[in-house]
Amino acid sequence: MAKIIGGLGTSHVPSIGAALDKGLRDTPDWKPFFDGYEVGKQWMRDAKPDIAVVVFNDHGNTFFLDRVPTFAVGVAETYNPVDEGWGPRAIPAFEGAVDFSWHFVDKLVERHFDPMVCREIEVDHGLQVPMELFFGRPEAWPVKVLPIWVNTIQYPIPTPQRCWDMGKVLREAIESWPGDERVVILGTGGLSHQLQGARAGFINQAADRAWLDGIASNPEPYRAMSREDYVEQFGSEGAELIMWLVMRAAMNSDVNLIHKHYHAPASMTGAGMVVLENAA
Amino acid sequence: MSEAAATIPDTPLFDRAGSIRGYRINKMAMALGQPANRAAFKADEEAYLDSFGLSAHEKSAVMGRDWHEMVRLGGNLFFILKISAVDPTPITRIGAAQASMEHEDFLHLRLGKKRNG
């Protein structure tokens, strides 16, 4: 069977990619943010995964409002970075873990999920930025990817419990896969931010810091929280954090928090990451 | 969901009503992901907006870069950000406009950045 070698949670703020494109990594605004990810990149180099499962949301780049899948799964050979309006980015295309992705789709439907299955589709910063944060800017990505899109844009968005349940199926899919691939799971989005309304610019550093510890040691309250609770605590767009639950539910109940990092603000967002490993 | 969420102050969620109300604005903005449409927008903004059937009020909000009003009309930030990419306008200025704050005050009071100088 394939093996889960780690679960990562990370922000995917588009300005992170833009900062790298513009060579701003070592500017005062950005250096503390990027420096904190160096331990995560080193962890990734040592962990040598074969497949990265990336749970993220599209931001009005790949899916328009004419069709809004609550959950979508990629089964493509290749995922090109999409033009988000600023022009194409000079990062390599992502190679799909095609057979494993289909296996995950099989498991999902068997377990009563109904995903949209995507054969030809581009990916936005929701997938690009986490890959850049943990793998840097390679000539070619050293892993194949399984993208999972979660609708966090148009209400109703899925419940935290539903994201958690999907994580359980993801684990089952990995453990029932006959290959011996090493799999890392990236739950992405957040942390607190709000882009719309008079509360725009809302950041809740206390809730963010509690999240980074709690998602490791005691995720139950976050699974049980309502979507309204997420919006209230983390801001309207901070509700993206429900996607970390897919990752967390795929891990053991007991995990070791290997690394964490927090920085605010990255653009308009509380930003950070965790690296989790299953406890023995 | 939308009724309960509406109780969080100053926090509009992009629900059914918003999605229906803002469909034309968002569709117009989404199309700016294509370079040819960005060129058309830059060449003759009003003609571009007309081609998506925007009302006079919607056109005036877009052409005036009234971000607060665009959101009120159902524009979703993730779509209308493509307008800011054409300009370009930093997202923090869009945030400040919605919060009805000066940009420097917004950076300091909302995002916690140190004041310049």
From TrEMBL, chain B:
User: Is Metal-binding tagged as a keyword?
Assistant: no
Matches recorded under Pfam families = LigA
**Which Gene Ontology terms cover its molecular function?**
dioxygenase activity
SUPFAM superfamilies, A to Z: LigA subunit of an aromatic-ring-opening dioxygenase LigAB
Record InterPro entries = LigA_sf (IPR036622), Xdiol_dOase_LigA (IPR011986)
From the Swiss-Prot or TrEMBL record, give the protein name.
Answer: Extradiol ring-cleavage dioxygenase
Q: Keyword annotations for this protein?
A: Dioxygenase, Oxidoreductase
Membrane spanning stretches:
none
Please give the superkingdom of this protein's source: Bacteria
Coiled-coil regions listed in the entry: none
Q: Where is the Extradiol ring-cleavage dioxygenase LigAB LigA subunit domain?
A: 25-110
